[in-house]
Structures are given as structure tokens and as C-alpha cells.
Amino acid sequence: MELHYTKRPVLLFLSFTLLLVLIRADPDPLQDFCVADLGATVVVNGFPCKPASGVTSDDFFFAGLSREGNTSNIFGSNVTIANVLSFPGLNTLGVSMNRVDVAPGGTNPPHSHPRATELIILLKGRLLVGFISTSNQFFSKVLNPGEMFVVPKGLIHFQYNVGKKKALAITTFDSQFPGVVIASTTLFASNPAIPDDVLAKAFQVDAKVVALIKSKFER
């Protein structure tokens, strides 16, 4: 009998924990679809639905990933985004996708997606892909066509073309709007700018070095 009462608090705790998990989880959609009304004036943690009477087949179609991206830029890469902003039919469905074109020697620079896990599949070329964990451990692989790599939610990661030809990858996300924080431009090209002294202290360099790096991102 005493053992029975000892187990009861544990069972209550587990039940309460499970209840919290269920409450905090994102709810499933309550309708077949909710095409985003991007012109809505009120937006609360997402986009409201376009009236069903105005929805057409075009709302569920996106051709943007079929076109090669222009890699003539400082990073030698181009990311074509298919999230809810460019593909409103994804609203409430919890998925999105990018096309990543990378020139030889180019990189999709270190960045993170605060709201999604990323799955990378390489279609052409050779890419070094990697991420850094919160314990500062670096995980990486060189991908060949058909191979995949997963990046856990919110962690800094990158893709770098180690081949002699252009690389093409498709990245998928478990969010309609994963967001992106590019480390270099966030730190050295924010508006308003982070004070040079803060960055100099953080990177243990002279403020002149910080100013030089910032000048590389001036438009």
C-alpha cells in the first residue's frame, strides 16, 4: 500500500508534464487550407486566411525554384526562397523550401533559422555543409548528389562549394516561415550599427579591424 502512494506523485507529475507539452504544441490546421492573405492589416503570429471563395489553383503552385539563381555577389551564392511570403498556399501547413545555388568557391554564409530544422539534399556538385552545436562542437560532411544532411533548429550552419562546378541544393524546413539570421551581416551591417567597441571586445580585435569589416558590407 505504501508503494502505491509513493508512485502517485510521480504519475501526477508525468501527467502534468504531458499536459504542458500538449498545450504548448502547435495545433493542427482546423480547415483544409488557409491561403495567406498577405495584404491583411492585422497579423497575429502568422497570416489570416484568404476568403475560400477567392482561392484558386494558382495559390497552391510556385515555379520560383525552377530558375537558377544569380551567384554574382560577394558570397558567390543565391538562395531562392519558397516560404509563406512568396508562396501563400503554405500558410498554416508548417513547411517551406529553398533553392540554393553556389558557385565554385562560393558559400551560403554562416546563418541560422530560429524557427525551423533544415534538411539539405544536394542535387548537383559537391558541398561542404556543417553546423555548430551549443557546446561549440562542429559537425560537417562533404555532400555528393543525392546525399542529405540535417541541421537542428536554430543552430549556426553553412554550405560551401568545394567542387569545380556550380552546386545546387534544395533545403526544406518544418515551418512556413523559418526566418534567417546571417551571422556576418547581422553583426557588421545591422541598422542601426552595433558599436565598434562592442564587436572589438567580442572578437578581441582592434576597432579599426571592425571598421574595415563593416566597410565590406556597405552598399
UniProtKB/TrEMBL annotation:
Belongs to the germin family. The keyword Disulfide bond applies. The lineage of its organism: Eukaryota, Viridiplantae, Streptophyta, Embryophyta, Tracheophyta. GO terms for cellular component: apoplast. This is Germin-like protein. Disulfide bonds join C34-C49. It comes from the Eukaryota. It comes from Musa balbisiana (Banana). Keywords: Apoplast, Disulfide bond, Manganese, Metal-binding, Secreted, Signal.
